[in-house]
Write a structure and sequence with these properties.
About 55% of the residues lie in helices and about 0% in strands. The chain starts with a helix and ends in a 19-residue tail after the last helix. The mean pLDDT is about 80.
């Protein structure tokens, strides 16, 4: 699944390059695709955890 997603991103970037100015991708979309291809899937540090610690279990 991950390899397929990266392959799709590579394909979209290739199509973007071939179309040039006629491409419908925005610069943000291109940057996100390039990040995905270069770095892989981001690890989200913000998992919406509370800033308060549970001291009841300690």
């Amino acid at each position: 699944m991950i390899n397929n997603t990266i392959s799709i991103a590579e394909y979209k970037l290739k199509m973007h390059f071939e179309k040039g100015e006629a491409s419908t991708l925005t610069i943000i979309e291109v940057a996100e695709l390039m990040d995905l291809v270069t770095f892989g899937f981001p690890i989200h540090a913000n998992k919406q955890s509370s800033i308060f610690f549970n001291t009841m279990n300690n």
